[in-house]
Amino acid sequence: MTIPAALQKGDTVGIVCLANKIALQDIQPGIKLLESWGLRVVLGESVGAEYNQMGGSDEVRTADFQRMLDDPEIKAVISARGGYGTTRILDQIDFAGFYTQPKWVVGFSDVTALLCHLHRMGIECLHATMPKLMAQPDTQEADESLRRALFGETLSYSIPSHTYNQIGIAQGLVVGGNLILLDTIVNTPSDIDYDGKILFLEDVGEYYYNIDRVLVHMRRMGRLRNLAGLIIGQFTEMKDNQIPFGKTVNEIVLEHCAGYGYPICFDFPVGHVPHNLAMVVGREAKLKVDVKEVTLEYLKF
Question: Which of 173, 201, 214 is nearest to 267 (CA)?
């Protein structure tokens, strides 16, 4: 995997809307935080643009992202927020220049599709907080993890163990993101290989039965069989039908991963929560799950 160059103070980063629209005032705290790290922030034309729910038309968002990728002065491109729309423009992006001079691309949620696309190209990227969510009273750890990742500092996380955890040690490239987006990109040019990987999953606002349906699909495709390890992040704002599905997300996961033998950790701080730790997609890491503690340590910098 290719590691984009670590940022340095004085570098320029760009902010674009790959998906839903956003007003400039909603990302001002995030801009100020990035500037406090010594970075210069450039805003794309899609920031503040509107086309129904998206940050400008597909053409506007495509051209905006393309400019950011191709500009050698911009050292990282950060999606202002998630929502919906990233997959609509992926096939219109020319990654040729980016491939020869890679830079950090940052986002999560709907941006999962783009992160997987870059992983398939062999370039590391960051599943991490975005300007809409940054610089809030309870996001300091998430913000700091992004700063450390961008500036090439070591990343190692430790959390208490969970009752449902499956004990063990795994080592492999870290991949993953939003569960529904991972299912959406199956058999597209953005699809990824899961074998031997440490997979992390998160989601928001889904029905329990739909989480089950997607995991059934992944299991039937063999996507869950040969993982090195599995990290279950935050599944928030879950919904249920009038007749309850009858299982929690954790119980659904354990059912579909039964018998595979790899370590599984639950309640990891990644997803649509303030404590959303940066995950380097495509970087090798070691996952240790024991009875008292879970650690995820990235191995290359």
Answer: 201
Coil/strand/helix, residue 169 = strand
Domain 156-298, CATH: 3.50.30.60
Do the two domains 12-150 and 156-298 of this chain adopt the same fold? no
- Strand 104-107, strand 125-127: pairing: parallel
Domain boundaries along the sequence of the chain: 12-150, 156-298
Q: Whole-model pTM?
A: 0.97
Please write the tens of the pLDDT for every residue from 205-227: 999 999 999 999 999 999 999 99
Q: How far apart are CA 295 and CA 162, in angstroms?
A: 12
pLDDT, one tens digit per residue, over 35-70 is 999 999 999 999 999 999 999 999 999 999 999 999
- How far is Cα 128 from Cα 142, in angstroms, rounded to an integer? 8
Of the candidates 236, 239, 178, the one whose C-alpha atom is nearest the C-alpha of residue 209 is 239
Q: 220 exposed, middle or buried (CB, 10 Å; 0-12, 13-18, 19+)?
A: exposed
The predicted pLDDT at position 82 comes to 96
State how far the Cα of 120 lies from the Cα of 117, in Å rounded to an integer: 5
**DSSP strand E in the chain: where?**
12-16, 40-43, 74-79, 104-107, 125-127, 156-160, 168-178, 198-204, 229-236, 264-265, 279-281, 284-289, 293-298
| CATH class entry, domain 12-150 | alpha beta
Give per-residue pLDDT as tens, 74-127: 999 999 999 999 999 999 999 999 999 999 999 999 999 999 999 999 999 999
27, β-bridge pairs: none
Query: Residue 263 in contact with residue 230, Cβ under 8 Å?
Result: yes
Least Cα distance to 148 among 120, 132, 168, 129 occurs for 129
